[in-house]
User: Fold this.
Amino acid sequence: RKIARELHDGIGQNLNAIINLIDQAKLGHGDTADVLLKMRGIAKQTLDETRALSRLLRPQVLDDLGLEAALQWLVRTIGEAHRFAVRLDIGRPLPAISGDIATLVFRITQEALNNAARHARAESAQVVLRCEGGRLHLAILDDGRGCDIQAAMNANRTQQSSGLGGMRDRVRLYDGEMHIQSQPGGGFHLTIEIPLPSSAGGTTA
Assistant:
């Protein structure tokens, strides 16, 4: 839904604006140099938005580094950017994990840590990743101000949403489960479990 909205409201409208400016130039309306400058600005914005959507679909860092190194990079950069301590605990040995599941783990970790830093005002967080019994286990804990879980879920359709509903829906796409423990003033604990295919391929950890 988010990508469809971005394509329609962002990229689609930008391309339509460029078409209108081309029509103006063809009809000789306005200063040609000014019209071209406007077109260039809109085209640059559209390129930036397209690249952002591409990163949303599949982070380049996963292809470059693999899941384990990508998570190490993620916790380090978010911790430095928001000045809070993030500990990463990865059980070994990790099996090969498919590209889609690696992307899911990366995105959920990214969103949960950003929520902890920006909204929950956490001072520290921990990310724990294990693969045991044919299932992937991811836990993300923080010491922030916590939340009312039901209220956070109900806010999923608003701009103030924490994204918890979206996380849950993405996990369910892979036959996984998501559990949350939190209360106002009591920190936040998110866990997900996803069955791993018997012949996992794609991105390696």
